[in-house]
Amino acid sequence: MWIVLAVLILLAVVIGWNHHLVWVLMKNWFPQRLKLDTDPAWDGGQSYEHLAYASDSENQYLDLYVPESDGPVPLFVLIHGGGFFSNDSQSRQAQFMYRYFRDHGFACASVNYRLAQEAPFPGAVEDVRAAVRFLAANAEQYGLDADRIAIWGESAGGYLAAMEAVTETEVDLGGGAAAQAEAPAPELADSNAEWVGDFNISGGELLGYRGHDSAVTVPSGITVIKKRAFSTANGVTSITLPSTVIRIEGEAFYYCGTDNGFTINLGTSCVTSIGARAFENSGLTSVTLPSSVSTIEDHTFKGCAKLTSVTIPSSVTKLGFEAFRDCVALTDITVPGSVSSVGKCAFWRCSALSKATLQEGVGDIQEAAFKDCSLLTSVSLPTTLASLGKEVFQNCYSLSAVDIPSGVTVIPTYAFKSCQMLVRANLPAVTAISDQAFYGCSRLKGINAADRLALPDSLETIGGFAFYECVDATGLTAGEALNTLGGAAFAGCTHLKDIRLDGHGIKYDKNTFENIDRAASFTLYCDSKLVDWVADAGYQYTRQHGELETVPAVPPTCTEDGLTEGKRCPLCEEMVAEQEIVPATSHTVVIDPRVEPTYTSTGLTEGKHCSVCGAILTPQYEI
User: Fold this and answer.
1) Among 90, 327, 383, 527, which is most buried by a count of CB atoms within 10 Å?
2) Which residue, 320, 310, 327, 213, is CA-closest to 266?
3) Range of lowest pLDDT (46-50, 64-68, 570-574)
4) CA distances to 262, 278, 347, 512 from 330, in Å
5) Per-residue pLDDT for 181 more than 60?
6) 30-34, 372-376, 402-406, 564-568: which has the minimum mean pLDDT?
7) How far is the C-alpha of 100 from the C-alpha of 107, rounded, in Å?
């Protein structure tokens, strides 16, 4: 019994340590109970192997077998098993399934999907969904019956088949895998549709195009370009729409013209609506939108890798989520003032974008709108701008200067993080600089000035790591409104030497100025708690104050020279005696730890110390 228990414990440890090892051991130690004969060349119909249904991975393909038939054939979609980390569309189980159905008069599609090592959940689910949509959308081309599609899976494939059945209408499973959009949703054939040449037309709607011409002119009278109408027109180079078109549905030109790129001439069309993903991942090279267009929806031009220029008319009021994301050839963009808000990730990863102009009227730039635009050197922001989203210009490595309008009061988290070439920034009315806002801006020298970080008088808060490793900064100035310095806010600013903070009672962290220049000097108000830390850290500093504080009549306890009886010394906090030698406003002293205190009886002279607080006078005046 103890031996059996030990074996079970060992097996549990092995399984917990490495599932893949267990699978290998099982596969090699235990004989295959079922074996397949070598599959002879199938002559009962048409085979389409390694048919790509998506383009994110070389593993997104299916093997389609269509038996000979006088009409459309019902389709079985077969999903192989393997614990989500092994097997493929030609695995033993998959061959058992598709051979059986294929030989009994059914079309079979054995789907290969990305395994968990490549695409964690929900990647495989989205791949199966994309494959089903691909087959439904192209049913006519392959002789399939789009009304009779069944899905079958074995083991992990059974799970994926069930998930496809219950989530087909879902928009997003949370994984964000591109495969979800790689193929269209199943749509039944339109009984009223007919082919006119290479165009599938129903009423005034263009449902599809099957031609191979490089230049395509859509027939007049068409009012709607339907979803996926041109999704298989990979070789097209130009498309002209008639003036009658008023709506372009989502995904209408999805993956169109990817071979050589294409242009679209909207002519005098009255297009008012362009659906989400209308041109996503297409080969579009340039486009001028008509003035009748009012919105650019989410993902409309996402992934148009050949798009070099686009003209946005002043009629557009909305620039949606990821509208131009990954347009890696786009070099220049002008956003008209009619667009009140630039959507989240609108130009994310437009890696060739060098110039962005936002005209007067734009009031908001949302999160990550220009993130990873690594060649962006010039950005023009309007005076109407009131807010910036986090990460808005993060990783814009080439950006050298930016002028933030006075309407913007908060620089959000990561706003300019890793903008390594940023030298100057104007922040006239900012009240808060958030965490890591200028993190890693190693060449930043000036804010509101050419050669120092002259933070605005309105600034109240500086977040953690806000200016971390801004190594070229040498001077820092902040006004009396400043009350909070976040942890490591200026850490790693190794050339920072001249620091003046006029705020009272500033909250700080001990590593706020970690690893700055050891020769740095501070000018601080004496009631700031930061003073104690600066002194303990061994930095030189100046303690300054304004008018002396009037206190109730108390018997004098301080004989400090140069202060009026009845006033309190803001340096040593002691009541002063009857002598008045130095005007109150001139009592500016510098701590010099290298000099031992000396005492006087009638007053202070240059180079001497206060008899009470031991401060040495600065040499700019004599008494």
Assistant:
1) 327
2) 310
3) 570-574
4) 15, 18, 9, 40
5) no
6) 30-34
7) 11
Report yes or no: 448 and 475 within 8 Å, Cβ to Cβ: no
pLDDT at 307: 96
Is cis: bond before 593, omega within 30 of 0?
no
For residue 195, the tally of other CB atoms under 10 A from its CB is 12
Q: Outline where DSSP puts E strands in 270-397.
A: 273-274, 284-288, 295-296, 309-311, 318-319, 332-335, 341-342, 355-358, 364-365, 378-380, 387-388
Per-residue pLDDT tens for 232-254?
788 899 999 988 999 999 999 98
Distance CA 108, CA 131 (A): 12
Task: Check residue 100 and give its pLDDT.
Answer: 81
**Distance of alpha carbon 383 from alpha carbon 400, whole angstroms:** 20
Question: Over the range 393-405, which residues count as b (16 or more CB within 10 Å of their CB) and which as e?
Answer: bbbbebbeebebe
Q: Report the DSSP beta bridge partners of residue 6.
A: none
What whole-number distance in Å separates Cα of residue 157 and Cα of residue 177? Answer: 19
**DSSP assigned state of 350:** -
Q: In what order do the strands lie in the sheet with 484-485?
A: 410-411, 432-433, 461-462, 484-485
How are beta strands 378-380 and 401-403 bridged, if at all?
A: unpaired
Tokens at 30, concatenated: 């235990």
452, 477 Cβ separation under 8 angstroms: yes
pLDDT at 447 over 90: yes
- Which is nearest to 402 in space by CA: 446, 345, 456, 351? 446
Note the residue count of the chain: 623
3-state secondary structure of 605: coil
Alpha-carbon gap, residue 301 to 253, rounded angstroms? 10
Residues 6+ apart with CB under 8 A from 417: 391, 394, 395, 436, 437, 438, 439, 440, 441
H or E element at residue 522: strand 521-525
Phi, psi (degrees; rounded to nearest 5) at 461: -135, 135
Round to whole Å and give the CA distance between 61 and 610: 85
**Beta-bridge partners for 110:** 63, 78
H runs (alpha helix) in 146-192: 156-167
Burial of 519-547, coded b for 16+ CB within 10 Å and e otherwise, reads: ebebebbbebebbebbbeeebebebbbee
DSSP-derived letter for residue 584 is G
Amino acid at 400: S
pTM given for the model: 0.62
**Average of per-residue pLDDT across 388-398:** 97
Strand partners of residue 224:
205, 247
332: region left, alpha or beta (phi > 0 left; psi from -120 to 50 alpha): beta
In single-letter form, the type of residue at position 612 comes to V
Instruction: Label residue 173 left, alpha or beta by phi (over 0 means left) and psi (-120 to 50 means alpha).
Output: alpha
